[in-house]
Specification:
By secondary structure, the chain is mainly alpha-helical. Among the domains are: about 180 residues, Rossmann fold (3-Layer(aba) Sandwich); about 70 residues, no CATH class; about 55 residues, Arc Repressor Mutant, subunit A, CATH 1.10.10.10. Strand 3, helix 6 and strand 4 form a beta-alpha-beta unit. Helix 31 packs parallel to helix 33.
Length: about 900
């Protein structure tokens, strides 16, 4: 029995774009003193034949200015996103990108934005595919600019952007502005001529551009020699020239000459030196303004006034821009004008601020800015600034508001915030404790005991508070989540207990958590063998989780439902459900658990159909995914299935060695008993029963933690051992209760297995009448449901019993079925004399009917067969009718079964 992948982060909420910082979506405005760079603009125009334009250079090289100049001088539609380090949350990053693209057309990206509101994102392919399809509607060249891209380090984001770039429609081009080359597949893009590079070497000013810049910046006649020398000293670095120009203002010719002679050093040294000099040349009021606002990534007049406690912020910012003092005006947002400092300039002023104002004053500035952000609805920025100031009580209050609005749609960001908050502060807020527990579980290795240990203090704190408050709804949610935590630790009994407790606390309208708990209890019913009850619980859980829009929980319910169908022998329905999971379970790495479990279930179905090659492919994939995820239960189950495949193919030694090796590799002691049962079963089938008394003692000890179906598997293995030992009475006594239990609870597979083992016991006891009776019942059920390996795995004993029973089978259908089974045993398993198809009389097929049958078995339609054999469709219909009559079948599936079983094709 495989373990279902339980629902992930369980709540959904709307990710409102109203809460975005719109200043991040504004392109910088150009200053009046910009230097025309015609050659670079022409190169950028050529870039419109590429998918990606990449502008990389250190700070101060005019990367952003160049792109701003280009889009300002052209008429193609452009959107701009300025990134910061907090955008490494994939949900946040793609929300900004989608929101920017929607300014082209409000119908773009609706599906992707909706998906971004879910607690756990799907794979970047599934996330971005609807967006890419939307973008194909653009009819002319459009530009997406991502500025400051060097701050992005998230592999998920980079992989997603790579996918977007490689699948861009011809009408959309991406411009990345970065201090360093991003880890995108740039080599591939260059090889395909889909990339335009602009680097620091391209952005350096030459002598002519240096001359133009200095003449614009200074009202002085500067000699060509000085211009050339300054250009050489700065190596054409635009920021260095700009700083030099500021320092040269109000100097006479001799002072300028002296300054140029002493101008040297690295860019960092030069910038620190000159910015300090520029700063100290400002009036006292401007110095105070710069000191108090330099820590802000983006600023506007209202925010500046809040920090400086004045009302001249607008005038100060206008003057800074007018004087070209390293501030860039962004586009307007409503009635506000936003600006941002040059990072190099801001960093130097920040150093001075720490010296002059001290940390306590800086902390108060952050507190004021946090208040301003909160008042204006920018919770993320309010939290970030409060966190920087270590105002932890305020951070906690703001995070609670953030969770109320966004829930867990930005779990990465919430987790990053909480990692920087003292634990004792978090313990004061039960909602945050509960939220943090969920984030930890779904962002780390959920199977690791260390994960559960890390979560426990937060859950214990929240539970204690809510029990004291008698907050039943919250307590019910927490208990349901506890069930998930212990589930992944393999403690199913405790998970079931938590689920039952949670349902006593949860209100009827809490569809998400009630659905989650019902899903856990459906697994309990499934493993207690109560298949019909399990099915009802699964369907109810799926409906509730669907109402909660929790796709992960719905997939888990589908997985459990497929197991119900497997137990009932409804293989086609089980197969369809697992194929659906493989199609839909795409996203982060946790979805590999779902894929692995579905692959294992498909292996089980193929094995039962005796399609061993396909079973091995699915089981091997399940094992690989189990190892990749550290999912020990999946590893164990897939390994046991592979061992059974080895045994079925005649390699007994390899099969037993594989199962034995599991004892050393599987760490979870709960799984040891299942491994021991698999070892015992293989030993019995290999006729090596001398060393199994130790195992008998183990299974004879009552184990309260063992699941019902596990006890059934052990009982069936013990029954096989007793038959092999000649203790048939003990075997029959053991089987009777399980036969009744399986029939009453809808476990058709177990019912067939109990009948088979009972028939083998009576056969071993020379009671042919009773053996025939039970085998006929087993064959009737087995044929109706498509069971094969359940008979074949019994080996020589079953082959002998089938051969003995064949003449007394009551109808042609069972005779054909029994004969196909006999033909499927290996020669070594067959009793002396074997079996031939003559034991079941089959009217000979004509040569043409054999040809038709082969094409029929291959899955071709009547029309296709007619074209292949160059006859009419009516002729083929006549042949098919004759084939059905001769084989005594009524459908293609039955014809395929008989033909393959009797080796007619």
């Amino acid at each position: 029995m495989s373990k279902v992948s339980m629902s992930k982060l369980p709540a959904t909420s709307s990710h409102s774009t109203d809460k975005l910082l719109h200043a991040k979506l504004m392109a910088p405005r150009l200053h009046a003193t910009i230097i025309p760079r015609g050659d670079l603009l022409t190169r950028l125009d050529i870039g419109l034949t590429k998918k990606l334009i990449l502008v990389t250079a250190p700070t101060g090289f005019g990367k952003t200015t160049l792109i701003s100049m280009w889009i300002a001088s052209r008429d193609f539609p452009t959107v701009w996103v300025t990134l910061d380090e907090y955008d490494n949350d994939p949900a946040r990053f793609w929300t900004y990108v989608c929101s920017a693209l929607r300014t082209f057309d409000s119908s773009l990206g609706k599906t992707t934005l909706s998906t971004l509101a879910t607690p756990q994102l799907p794979s970047f392919q599934n996330l971005l595919l609807p967006l890419i399809n939307d973008l194909t509607r653009l009819r002319e060249a459009h530009i997406l600019v991502l500025d400051e891209f060097h701050v992005i380090s998230s592999a998920q984001i980079i992989d997603g952007l790579s996918y977007l770039i490689q699948h861009l429609p011809e009408t959309l081009h991406v411009v990345l502005i970065s201090r360093s080359e991003p880890s995108l597949p740039l080599g591939i893009l260059r090889a395909r001529d889909e990339l335009m590079d602009i680097t620091a070497a391209d952005l350096r000013f030459d002598v002519s551009e240096t001359k133009t810049f200095l003449h614009k910046a200074l009202s002085l006649n500067i000699s060509p020699e000085i211009i050339t020398r300054l250009q050489e000293r700065t190596e054409g670095w635009p920021a260095g020239l700009r700083l030099a120009a500021l320092s040269l203002q109000n100097r006479n010719a001799n002072e300028i000459e002296t300054f140029i002679q002493t101008f040297s050093g690295s860019h960092r040294y030069v910038s620190d030196y000159l910015i300090k000099e520029v700063f100290e040349s400002q009036p006292e009021g401007m110095q105070d303004f710069l000191l108090k606002t330099c820590f802000l990534n983006r600023l506007t007049a209202s925010l500046s006034d809040a920090l400086t406690e004045t009302n001249d912020g607008a005038a100060m910012l206008e003057r800074l821009e007018r004087d070209n003092l390293f501030v860039v005006q962004l586009e307007r947002s409503g009635n506000s004008i936003w600006y941002r400092y040059n990072p190099l300039f801001a960093e130097s002023i920040q150093y001075l601020t720490r010296q002059r104002l001290g940390e306590e004053a800086i902390q108060k500035l952050f507190e004021k800015s946090s208040d301003w952000y909160e008042y204006h609805g920018a919770l993320e920025d309010a939290i970030e600034t409060a966190l920087t100031a270590k105002l932890f009580a305020r951070v906690m209050s703001l995070i609670e508001k953030f969770i109320e609005i966004r829930d867990l749609s930005e779990g990465y960001t919430i987790g990053r915030w909480l990692e920087n908050v003292p634990q004792q502060e978090i313990f004061q807020h039960p909602v945050i404790c509960f939220t943090y527990g969920q984030i930890i579980l779904y962002s780390t290795d959920r199977f690791a005991p260390a994960t559960a240990s890390r979560i426990e203090p937060y859950l214990r704190t929240a539970e204690s508070t809510w029990r004291t408050e008698k907050n039943h709804p919250r307590l019910g949610q927490l208990l349901s989540f506890r069930g998930i935590v212990v589930w992944w630790q393999g403690d199913f009994q405790k998970a079931f207990e938590y689920a039952r407790q949670s349902l006593d606390e949860l209100p009827e309208h809490d569809v998400l958590w009630r659905g989650n708990s019902l899903l856990i209890l459906s697994y309990e019913a499934l493993n207690e063998g109560r298949i019909l009850i399990a099915q009802d619980l699964i369907l109810e859980a799926r409906a509730l989780l669907g109402a909660a829009q929790n796709i992960f929980g719905v997939l888990a319910a589908i997985q459990l439902l497929s197991e119900v169908f497997y137990w009932q022998g409804e293989f086609e329905q089980a197969e369809q459900l697992n194929q659906q999971i493989l199609t839909e379970a795409v996203g982060d790495e946790s979805m590999l658990d779902d894929q692995g479990i579905a692959s294992l279930e498909l292996a089980n179905i193929a094995y039962e159909r005796n399609e061993l090659e396909q079973a091995e492919q699915f089981a091997t994939r399940a094992l690989d995914l189990g190892k990749q995820r550290g999912n020990e239960l999946l590893q164990m189950q897939a390994s046991i299935r592979i061992a059974q495949l080895y045994f079925a193919n005649g390699d007994s030694a390899r099969a037993r060695e594989l199962v034995k090796s599991l004892e050393a590799t599987i760490k979870n002691p709960v799984l040891l008993r299942e491994i021991q049962n698999a070892q015992a079963l293989l030993s019995i089938r290999a006729n090596d029963i001398s060393s199994l008394e130790g195992w008998v003692k183990i299974v004879s000890i009552e184990n309260q933690n063992a699941l019902h179906v596990q006890k059934e598997r052990e009982a069936f293995t013990l029954a096989r051992l007793r038959i092999a030992q000649g203790k048939t009475d003990e075997a029959l006594d053991l089987l009777q209760a399980w036969k009744v239990d399986s029939a009453e609870n809808g476990r058709v597979r177990s019912q067939v297995e109990a009948l088979i083992l009972g028939a083998l016991a009576y056969h071993a006891d020379s009671n042919s009448s009773k053996a025939n009776e039970l085998l006929i019942e087993a064959l009737t059920l087995g044929h109706a449901k498509g069971f094969r390996r359940i008979f074949l795995d019994e080996g020589t004993r079953m082959a002998a019993l089938l051969q003995a029973t064949l003449p007394s089978l009551p109808n042609r259908t069972l005779s054909l079925f029994a004969t196909t089974l006999l033909h499927s045993f290996s020669p070594e398993e067959m009793p002396l004399g074997g079996v031939t198809s003559s034991e079941v009389q089959i009217e000979a097929l004509s040569q043409q009917e054999v040809r038709v049958l082969r094409l029929l078995v291959a899955g071709m339609s009547n029309a296709d067969i007619a074209r292949e054999l160059i006859v009419s469709t009516n002729t083929i219909k006549t042949h098919v009718k004759s084939i059905y009559r001769k084989l005594n079948v009524k459908s293609r599936d039955e014809a395929r079964e008989v033909a393959r079983g009797l080796k007619l094709v």
